[in-house]
Amino acid sequence: MSVPREIGIGLISVGWMGQLHSRAYANLPIVYPELGIKPRLVQAADTAADRVDYAINALGYESGTDDYREVLANPEIDVVSICAPNFLHAEIAEAAARAGKAFWIEKPAGRSAAETQGIADAAAEAGVATAVGFNYRSAPAIEYARQLVAEGTLGRITNVRGAFFADYSSEPNGALSWRFIRKLAGTGVLGDLMGHLVDLAHYVVGPIDKITAATSTVYTERPELPMGTGTHFAVVENGKMLPVENEDYASMLVSFGDDAQGAGAVGTLEASRVAVGPRAQYGLEVYGTEGSLRWNFERLNELELALGRSGPHVGYTTVLANSHFGDFARFQPGAGTPMGYDDLKVIEAKKFLTAFLGRESVHADIRDALAAQRVVSAAEASATDRSWQDIAPVAGTSAARKTEEGGRD
Ligand SMILES: NC(=O)c1ccc[n+]([C@@H]2O[C@H](COP(=O)([O-])OP(=O)(O)OC[C@H]3O[C@@H](n4cnc5c(N)ncnc54)[C@H](O)[C@@H]3O)[C@@H](O)[C@H]2O)c1
């Protein structure tokens, strides 16, 4: 094997996602040795000093800083992971593009469609590769679902049902992290979970062209939590109560455009961060004239499939992820031994660094983030006036399209 190409990595923010990106970079050459890529963890930035220490001492970064600008100015760094809270995304991503650094940004890229457009424009102008943390599309069962829809195995797609239901804020004293404050997060569950679901629907079925939405806030006050402490699962007893500024639950009626693989299909998409029962039940169901499929993140390695309308086996069969499904075989030698959430980020890191090297990669980039965010921002508008909203198409996404499987028009 030739000497691997070293890629200098900069990390901005060392919270849950920053740590996960770092583990993904570390695992990439082990899981995909043939790519000849060797990520080098150069520098990490966080305003919380203990997280910088963790980045150096546990994750293995060579240096740390409390100022992300140092990471962007570091000539040893080729690409950056932007894992900061949402309010910093546009500022950091646009600065990264201006500095000529490719970036892998966590979702939602911008807090609104306008902000995401600004990031997309900056990346296009600088000509830097981008990736967005829509990790669920890399689940092997989802990759296979996309393939089944594209091959027509389910027949004509008639309807889609998706629900991303989490309980991370179901506790009334769940902390008021940055996620609940409008200027820090933008929307609530719409940007946090609905964006993921919209991306899955785009990736498997095709671009959404119209929506109408309703939202609600179940808990209107929560105890405050200082930035950089705890997680968004934290519960604070007897804390100072402050207002929740965005929605806990959202639902949408959607239709898919003429160019979608599932052209003419309609459906419902819902998201909640306060569900009691589902833990991280992130599900997508696709129904067609010849069959249907359903997947749920809590059962990451299972795809439920129903093919055909008659015969003794009509109805759902559970197929365990196996070597025919996406990158499953990279992680486990045989079906039945499950992959995990962290593995999805290793796949995402592979797609990002492959794109950075100018090699072919069908992955979520900033255009896909813009497409999802247009739906999210339209849902926000629709929820206030109950209108139907047209979604302007975004060129060059990896949404499932009728004519060219794999998108990228
Ligand atoms: N893809 C997914 O499934 C997924 C899951 C969770 C979070 N996310 C996204 O990842 C992003 C980060 O979320 P998280 O859960 O890791 O958050 P977190 O709260 O765990 O971490 C955020 C970190 O940012 C740091 N920070 C704050 N201000 C900073 C600044 N000015 N410069 C540098 N660092 C700063 C904080 O100190 C903290 O360490 C968000 O955009 C979120 O929506 C994506």
From TrEMBL:
What are the UniProt keywords, alphabetically?
A: NAD, Oxidoreductase
Q: Which SUPFAM superfamilies match?
A: Glyceraldehyde-3-phosphate dehydrogenase-like, C-terminal domain, NAD(P)-binding Rossmann-fold domains
Q: Listed GO molecular functions?
A: nucleotide binding; oxidoreductase activity
Which residue range or ranges hold the GFO/IDH/MocA-like oxidoreductase domain?
A: 143-294
Q: Gfo/Idh/MocA-like oxidoreductase N-terminal domain spans which residues?
A: 8-134
Pfam families in the cross-refs = GFO_IDH_MocA (PF01408), GFO_IDH_MocA_C3 (PF22725)
What the entry lists under InterPro entries is as follows: Gfo/Idh/MocA-like_OxRdtase_N, Gfo/Idh/MocA_oxidrdct_glycsds, GFO_IDH_MocA-like_dom, NAD(P)-bd_dom_sf
> PANTHER family under this entry?
BCDNA.GH03377
Q: What is this protein called?
A: Gfo/Idh/MocA family oxidoreductase
- Give the taxonomic lineage as stored in the record: Bacteria, Bacillati, Actinomycetota, Actinomycetes, Micrococcales
